[in-house]
């Protein structure tokens, strides 16, 4: 049942009071705002599964590296609230960095192995920031279920692992990647692309599909699949490849041959904008 009015809170005490009025089970959708159809697909799933839906909007400073785009990360709270109201969300929490990380803050959640490859290798400290904020969001909202996108495949793996390892009483639900009609995965960062880069950005999905087509024809050699993705990315003059990977789905360790569930993934620069995408095989 949809509640008639969306509640918006900022402080932790307001959150706790509002949380106490909501019927359970509660589904949490953590976001950094500037919402698009990908975020809204998580909200829709939460709406289907849960009696109440809580969305957090927080551009988490500790998951951005010193050279990353924290200060110019896109924001539009009014538009986000309109979208969430239409989507039937019950409660929106927009904490401040100061309340999340007050002076003297010094407690972190870090994982040993899962954070070493892929995004973790390119963005040192990123997943320490992600795991810590998600742990804090779980403690503050106390949801029964929490929704994340497969778009951020390593983040999904990190959160599944952390939730298990630390016994958070939360069921983690990973939702499929939502794409534009031409295949580009929806991302708040897509607004940074100019018209030519936006068109060239379809190369990520094309390269994943090229590798998937080879896999479907029986190719199981991981180097060959990585080469197919690399060649496709390199065929696009505006694209600059940072990494491609063909890894075990759970451990994210690079494979020699595909035997079970595997993850193809990549990071690619279009101009100054860094995009990631992935596809699951097997
Ligand atoms: P963000 O605001 O970028 O931190 O994303 C918030 C949540 O939405 C994360 O769990 C993302 O994985 C998820 N998400 C972002 N883009 C997509 C997409 N295109 N499809 C599905 N989920 C997405």
CATH superfamily of the largest domain: HUPs
Fraction in beta strands: 15-25%
The level 1 CATH classification of the largest domain is: Alpha Beta
Give the H and E element order: EHEHEHEHHHEHEHHHEEE
Shape-level CATH architecture of the largest domain: 3-Layer(aba) Sandwich
Main beta sheet: 6 strands, parallel
Named once each, the bound ligands are: adenosine monophosphate
Strands, total number: 9
**Mind telling me the C-alpha Rg?**
19 Å
Strand order of the largest sheet: 1-4-3-2-5-6
Q: Can you tell me the CATH topology of the largest domain?
A: Rossmann fold
CA-CA gap between termini = 37 Å
Average pLDDT figure: 97
Which outline best applies? Answer: globular
User: Would you tell me the structural class of the helices and strands?
Assistant: alpha/beta
Q: How is this structure best summarized?
A:
The chain is built from ten helices and nine strands. It has 282 residues and is of the alpha/beta class. The chain has two domains: 7-175, HUPs (Rossmann fold); 188-281, Pantoate-beta-alanine ligase, C-terminal domain (Pantoate--beta-alanine Ligase, Chain: A,domain 2).
């Amino acid at each position: 049942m949809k509640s008639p009015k969306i509640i918006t809170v900022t402080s932790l005490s307001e959150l706790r009071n509002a949380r106490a009025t909501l019927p359970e089970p509660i589904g949490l959708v953590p976001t950094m705002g500037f919402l698009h159809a990908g975020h809204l697909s998580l909200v829709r799933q939460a709406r289907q599964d849960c009696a109440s839906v809580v969305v957090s909007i927080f551009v988490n400073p500790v998951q951005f590296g010193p050279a990353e785009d924290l200060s110019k990360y896109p924001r539009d709270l009014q538009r986000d609230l309109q979208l969430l109201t239409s989507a039937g969300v019950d409660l929106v929490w927009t904490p401040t960095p100061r309340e999340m990380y007050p002076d003297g803050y010094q407690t972190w959640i870090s994982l040993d192995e899962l954070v070493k490859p892929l995004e973790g290798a390119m963005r040192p400290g990123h997943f320490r920031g992600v795991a810590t904020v998600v742990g804090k969001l779980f403690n503050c909202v106390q949801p029964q279920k929490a929704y994340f996108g497969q778009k951020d495949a390593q983040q999904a793996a990190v959160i599944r692992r952390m939730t298990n390892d630390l016994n958070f009483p939360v069921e983690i639900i990973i939702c499929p990647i939502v794409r534009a009609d031409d295949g580009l995965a929806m991302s708040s960062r897509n607004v940074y692309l100019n018209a030519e880069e936006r068109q060239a950005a379809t190369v990520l999905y094309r390269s994943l599909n090229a590798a998937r087509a080879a896999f479907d024809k029986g190719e199981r050699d991981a180097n060959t699949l990585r080469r197919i993705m690399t060649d496709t990315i390199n065929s696009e003059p505006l694209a600059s490849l940072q990494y491609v990977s063909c890894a075990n789905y759970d451990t994210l360790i690079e494979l020699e041959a595909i035997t079970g569930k595997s993850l193809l993934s990549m990071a690619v620069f279009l101009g100054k904008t860094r995009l990631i995408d992935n596809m699951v095989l097997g």
